[in-house]
Amino acid sequence: MKKEMIRIMTIASRVLATHGLQATTIDTISSHCQIKKREFYTYFESKEALIRDILAEWISKSGKHLRMIPSFSFNAVIELQTYFTFIEDTLAMLTPTVIAELQNDYTEQWLRLSYFRDSEIFPFVVRNIERGLSENIYKPDIDKFLLTRLYYYQVQAVYHDNSLLHEMHRIFIHGIVNSKGLHFT
Fold first, then answer.
1. Which of 11, 27, 46, 149 is in the most buried spot, having the most CB atoms within 10 Å?
2. What are the boundaries of each domain within the chain?
3. Is the CATH code 1.10.357.10 the one for domain 48-182?
């Protein structure tokens, strides 16, 4: 991907998160990027294409990050905390307004995001719970699939109020660790 294209996507993602997808025009994006509108069109055919590319880049980076976390995490608790920090930073860009607009107006992109959640994020959470159980730092009687579904519903609630995300993550992790795992939190 071209350097200028990445720069435009980075700036545009901040503008879109601040103003919303519908309220942000190509003129606004071009102005923030300090480029002419016609230069925007040399990189993206439309605002929809820009949003598609931003989301595709985010999904790609997030997938790589999810695959790397286990290899550099000392244990399952550290792995989950690293993942939670990553998600909290990421969801700062996915404001409730942006989420609603993706669901209503950019259905294809919403489906891509949902597919990533179902095919990458939730299996990651299941594997993390399995790891924590094998390391004897998670409670032995937990149901990994039930907890993953519970996490899913908590994340759904956060889509509408991401100020709760950090607290939700803290409660989730304290609900699954045993006394041995507690000192890693």
1. 11
2. 48-182
3. yes
Q: Are 77 and 132 in contact (CB under 8 A)?
A: yes
Sign for the CA dihedral angle at 45, 19, 102, 88 comes to: positive
How many alpha carbons fall within 13 Å on the CB side of residue 163? 1
Lowest mean pLDDT among 49-63, 110-124, 136-150, 151-165: 151-165
CA distance 163 to 156: 13
Residue 160's Cβ-count burial label (10 Å; 0-12, 13-18, 19+) is: exposed
Confidence of residue 159 (pLDDT cuts 50, 70, 90): low
pLDDT at 97: 82
**8 Å CB contact between 5 and 29:** no
Is residue 180 predicted with pLDDT exceeding 70? yes
**Residue 68, φ and ψ in degrees, nearest 5:** -85, -30
